[in-house]
Specification:
The complex is a heterodimer. Chain A is α/β, with parallel strands linked by helices. Helix content of chain A is 37%, strand content 16%. In chain A, the strands form three sheets. In chain A, strands 2-1-3-6 form a four-stranded mixed β-sheet, with helices on both faces. In chain A, strands 7-10-9-8 form a four-stranded mixed β-sheet, with helices on both faces. A two-stranded antiparallel sheet of chain A has the order 4-5. Chain B contains one helix and eight strands, in the order H-E-E-E-E-E-E-E-E. The radius of gyration of chain B is 16 Å and the shape is globular. Classes of the chains: A alpha/beta, B mainly beta. The interface between A and B is medium-sized, with 33 and 34 residues.
Chain lengths: 377, 128
């Protein structure tokens, strides 16, 4: 993967894609000619101004003659692309699939315009065209969660601080910060209860991974993680139509199916990369994933999800710390969890390498939920 | 490189046309399921409760109760429940300086659709 940040060097998404693809090929011990399918994840053509990006990026990256497609699932685009790649390998449609996620932050556009475009990720005809952007919808969901569970802004701020601290060991991180809960509380209100430091950034960057059966990889790279479950599930698009707008029911449904397919339970998960687009959303996700075992808030306050806790979450820094080039986000999450299980993560390595890791990504307000369970080699 | 593109969309609302036409007039037109009776506002053409597509229109009086609201740099928005509806709804608040929990649907400004609520003091009998 490339660093996630705001590029000021004049480079473009095509450049980041080439760097990420070459890194994945080098890591797998493969050449471009060994790849027979490319799956590109990017959320919006408005940011790249490039339709049909899969064909373009296959061309850019020297992947001549491959099958190529683009996959989109809002914020979950990268993770959904990984799922599509797993399906191609599992069904023998392809032997070696390169999954490439890429997105520019489009920071040259006005912030309000970027916000208006992303607000079309929700129900564009009701929410988007009313001008309700992402942070406000997440804020309303968070308030419902807080009212039900007793979670406070300080609980959210502790997550914002921890993920930025974890990111300090990650050379690719966008926001490795030394901040305190007081700093979060002093940052400007974006949409109450969320303040600027509760929000993940939009980043520039790309990430790529290669999916294959072990037999189709060189001998030196065959000892890699396995996918035990790849599951997605949707919730109602409109927050107001959910039984509890503060509960991520679609994510819970996906997680329960994933545990079932993997033949494990939530208690078997020893590490997680969770979609923390906002600090409170991480806590809401952990609740829905069952990783707090029914006592999520207590587990959060007891340090269970800390780097040295029983179930470390977002050692990469998550979206809050590592950053979020939307199409690349889910690919980078899977990459981080895989490298953790292989004991060769480039950032904050888990003190004890677990057998199973969970990766969670979503689009909308946990509307399209993608979950993978990985098993250590 | 510099590149500029101006886009002016005109999107057909399809079967939801009556809902959007009412909304432009500041009126709340919900959908009611002929199967289970679920009343949805915003309207939808397939019941979100039982998936039945046998739907009829049901006018609401447009009054709503605020459940949660958020305020920030891009505006003030709320999750509300319109009287007579079984679903909740996200709206923009056109007069967020009022700190009440009762309001009435307001017509969107301009051509764009949108769900806007004017906050008001609740008067006795107004929510019948």
């Amino acid at each position: 993967m490339t660093p996630f940040n705001r590029r000021k060097d004049g480079s473009s998404f095509r450049d980041w894609a080439r760097v990420a693809v070459q890194g994945a090929l080098d890591d797998a011990g493969l050449e471009a000619a060994d790849i027979d399918a490319l799956i590109v994840a990017s959320e919006s053509d408005f940011f790249t101004l490039q339709l049909n990006p899969a064909a373009l990026l296959a061309d850019e990256c020297g992947l001549i003659g491959v099958a190529a497609k683009r996959v989109e699932g809002g914020g979950a685009s990268g993770h959904v692309a990984v799922h599509a790649g797993v399906a191609e390998v599992a069904s023998s449609m392809a032997r070696r699939v390169l999954v490439l996620g890429v997105e520019p932050s489009a920071s040259h556009l006005k912030g309000a315009d970027v916000g208006a475009l992303y607000s079309l990720s929700f129900d564009a005809w009701t929410d988007g065209m009313t001008g309700i952007e992402s942070t406000s919808l997440y804020a309303l969901s968070a308030q419902a969660f807080m009212a039900r569970t007793g979670a406070s802004a300080d609980d959210f701020a502790a997550i914002a601080v921890r993920n930025r601290t974890n990111a300090k060991a990650n050379p690719n991180a966008h926001l490795p910060l030394d901040i305190s809960v007081e700093d979060v509380a002093a940052s400007p209100v974006v949409a109450s209860p969320y303040r600027r430091l509760d929000c993940s950034p939009l980043s520039d960057g790309a990430a790529a991974i290669i999916l294959a059966r072990a037999d189709d990889l060189p001998a030196r790279t065959q000892d890699r993680v396995r996918f035990r479950a790849v599951v997605s599930a949707v919730d109602t698009v409109r927050l107001g139509e959910r039984r509890d707008p503060g509960f991520f029911e679609g994510k819970q449904r996906a997680a329960q199916r994933a545990y079932s397919y993997a033949g494990i339970s939530a208690t078997d998960i020893g590490l997680a990369e969770v979609y923390d687009s906002y600090s409170g959303a991480q806590l809401q996700a952990l609740e829905a994933l069952g990783l707090g075992h029914g006592l999520t808030l207590a587990a959060e306050r007891d340090g269970v999800f800390a780097a040295n806790g029983a179930l470390p979450v977002n050692l990469s820094g998550g979206l809050l710390g590592q950053g979020a080039p939307v199409g690349a986000t889910g690919v980078a999450q899977v990459l981080a969890a895989a490298l953790q299980l292989e004991g060769r993560y480039f950032g904050l390595q888990a003190q004890n390498v677990p057998r199973f890791a969970l990766v969670d990504t979503h689009g909308g307000i946990a509307t399209l939920n993608a979950i993978s369970i990985l098993e250590a080699p | 490189m510099k590149y500029q593109m101006n886009l002016d969309y005109s999107i057909p609302p399809g079967d939801l046309a009556p809902y959007f036409e009412a909304l432009q007039d500041g009126k709340a037109l919900a959908s009611e399921c002929n199967g289970c009776g679920n009343v949805a506002f915003p309207a939808r053409m397939q019941c979100g409760a039982c998936c039945n597509s046998d739907i009829k229109w049901k006018p609401l009086n447009g009054t709503a109760r605020v459940l949660f609201r958020t305020d920030g740099g891009s505006g003030s928005f709320a999750l509300v429940k319109f009287d007579g509806a079984d679903t909740h709804c996200t709206v923009g608040l056109i007069n967020p300086e009022r700190n009440t929990t009762f309001g009435k649907l307001a017509a969107p400004q301009g051509d764009a659709p949108g769900l806007w609520l004017a906050l008001a003091e609740e008067k006795l009998g107004e929510r019948r």
